[in-house]
User: Fold Sensor-like histidine kinase SenX3 from Amycolatopsis bullii.
Amino acid sequence: MSPAPEERVLRRARWVITAQIAVVVSLLVAVAGAIAYGILLSGQHADADRLLARTIQLGPGTTPPGCVWLFTPGAHAPAGPPPAGMPIPELNAFVPSPGDVHIERRSIDGMTYTFRVENRGGVVSQAFFEERYQIQDRASLVFGLGVAEALALLAALGSGRVLARRAIRPLEDALRRQRTFVADASHELRAPLTRLHTRAQLLARRASGRDAVELDHLVRGTRELGEVVEDLLLSAQACGERPSLELVELGVLAEEAVAAEAMRASEGQVRLAVTRERRPYVVQGVPTALRRVLSALLDNALGHTPPGGSIEVWLGVPDERHVELRVRDTGVGFPAADADRIFERFARGSDGDGRRFGLGLALVREVVTGHGGTIAAAARPGSGATFTLRLLRADPS
Assistant:
């Protein structure tokens, strides 16, 4: 049996935390190693420079230390044949005046040398230092740092795994409690809603006239309530699978939403109507989610439109790729500065009245954005508001 989606996410989170800890530890070891290598290299170069300066100062009468050769115009030390390519006559041009010093590092016959050219009282001396053993020391340091890096990485992976488990454990407990709640709520909510829907259907079959129409609305309302509860329970499951998308006729949903709010609008003396062409307005989405979007927009409009006002739901096709739906009311409106803030959760208005916009519009934007669409609001205080929803068209075929 494959693990649940939230289990996969938790497992991925543990590995991410472990990898992050390992990366941080590896970087720290690498930085420390680079600093150690830099200090060693700088110290070796300083030692070589001091050694060459001392050799030139003592002159060819004193045997230089190992790996050092000294050349003056009249002699060289130590005795015996010098390495091939030494001395280098063209280096004398770098020290034309007494007191001039030139230090350089160069590879000769595959070996790296540090050499110092110094003009002492008009006499130019060249001293060469072979870095054979220094290079070996640096190679040993690099090898040791590589071993330390590998050991540190293994230790970081082990400790990171332990720390990740401890860090994720509270979240695992929370998800476990959430799953228990979802299971209990599913049983406690679905059963009474099913009974309510069934009884409403029986009453609708027995009724006639206006009572039958109202009971049909009640049946539709209980079905929609069951769908809402079902979607909320599914969304409560962390990291649940995305619902499958369907072809949705947005015009039909708009007419159903307006019909469901017709009685409320009539009681509030608000004219409520749909304006659309008799053509398909097909989008791809989740019907229950889009139905809640329309319900929330109408609820918002009805809540802010005084008696005698009107609400219009308009559908159109602005271009070949989109379907547009507008909910326009003649209500109290809001300041233009709040056009974006009203989609924030529990945001307050900027006109000083302390008005809160609640949660509905924030959820509307989340649903619309999840469908790859956009929603925008435009209004002026006292002149009503217009909410424009735009979704990608779908091929009805």
In short: The first strand starts at residue 68 and ends at 71.
